[in-house]
Each structure stands twice: as structure tokens, then as C-alpha cells.
Amino acid sequence: MKVYRIDNENEQRGIWRTFKGEWKPIFDELTDGKCRDLPMPHNDLYHEGGHWFAATTEPELLQHWMSKQDLIELQKLGFEICEYQVTSYRVLGQFECIFLRENILNKRICSINEIYH
Questions:
Q1: Which of 17, 66, 72, 107 is the residue whose CA sits 20 to 30 A from 25?
Q2: Half-sphere exposure of residue 7, counting CA atoms within 13 Å on the CB side?
Q3: Among candidate residues 36, 37, 4, 6, the one with its CA nearest the CA of residue 19
Q4: Which positions ≥6 away from 18 have C-beta within 8 Å?
Q5: Sign of the four-CA dihedral 74, 80, 83, 85
Q6: Cα(29)–Cα(33) distance, rounded to whole angstroms?
């Protein structure tokens, strides 16, 4: 199973939270910040049986969250578009699934052209 997520491994953070779950959104550092105003409240589901990470099931679904300009700027800030091969995940909605980092089998870095053809 593959999931897609934007991560900064060196800083141990995603676009909304650190890998430890601390609130640290990146959107104010981006020109577009497409999801800047999207509510991302604390949800106990993200801590049920471990620490779950938000992702998508198809690379193109990242277009819902990020503009092409956002992705270009995120890469300059050390973020990568990651394709993770995972043993399992949970679907939460049309654009979101969640997975546990310990379920990652493999990681591949994707290009912006895989998201925006």
C-alpha cells in the first residue's frame, strides 16, 4: 500500500505538526499557503494505538492541499514529497488517510511533476 505525504525528515516535521505532534504549521512561510485556513484541530484518533500521520492515497490528491508554488517553496525549505510503502493505513475521507511511521516499509522521493503533470 502506498501513501503520499510532505515531510522534512531533518527537522522531523510535516506541514502542520512535528513528528511528535507539536503544532508547527509551515503555511505562513509560503506565498500561496493553499491550506493555511483549513482547520486541523487536535483529534484523539491521531494518537489511538500510536502516533498517526496524515497522508493521501494518490499523489495527485496532494493538489487538494498544496499549490505547485507551495511545493516549490517547501522543497527549498527542506521538505520532500514522500511516497511511503506501508503495511496498513486508515482512510479518513476523500483526501486523507493516516498511517503509523512504524508501518513504513520503504520511502521514495517524488518530483513536483508527479503531483502537477
A1: 107
A2: 21
A3: 6
A4: 11, 12, 24
A5: negative
A6: 8
Closest CA to 51 of 61, 62, 43: 43
pTM recorded for the entire structure: 0.89
What is the domain count for the chain?
A: 1
99, with CB counted inside 10 A (0-12, 13-18, 19+), is buried
pLDDT per residue over 67-99, tens digit each? 999 999 999 999 999 999 999 999 988 889 999
In 3-state terms, what secondary structure has residue 64? helix
Phi, psi of 93 (to 5 degrees): -175, -170
- What DSSP element (H or E) covers 54? strand 52-55
C-alpha cell recorded at residue 2: 502506498
